[in-house]
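Exam revision sheet. Question 4 asks you to relate a sequence to its structure. Input first:
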Amino acid sequence: PKQWYQRRVAITAGIEECDNPQSVTILIKGPNKHTITQIKDAVRDGLRAVKNAVEDQMVVPGAGAFEIAVYQALQEYKNEVRGKQRLGVQAFADAMLIIPKCLAQNSGHDAQECLVKMLQEHTGLDKCVGLDLVTGEAMYPAEAGIWDNYCVKKQLINSCTVISSNLLIVDEVMRAGMSSLKG
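Answer key, structure tokens:
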């Protein structure tokens, strides 16, 4: 039998035990338009994250753990590279630390201290290490159930590479233009 329910968590109501549910309605209330917009954005982001996880059928550890793991892998790979390319690998590795730094800074912790803790904890382990935003200590996000979408991280890597390449092209064009003005 269908049962109507109402819970006072955020004001949710609905029908349970539907035979073939096809849609859901979310009622959002708030004290002002700004709050309602913020709640709508949060719900949309949450639903999009679930959709991405279901479509990708995979997730990666969150809390900055993915970026720390990529940084460590690039540091190892850098030893195999020679010449100027080595500087590019180092720059890309350093750029990967921006997200863990932002997480630390936005949670009120010293970014450098948190990075050192995470890098020390990650060294020599097969586990991904992230940042506990409450304590500022290194933690294992997979054990805490903190995950990021695979497609988001894949897009992050692709976008960073494309943007970096475009900036280098613009830099070369600017240099070529300057040298033609001089000569």
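Marking note for examiners. Residues 115 and 133 are 12 Å apart (CA to CA).
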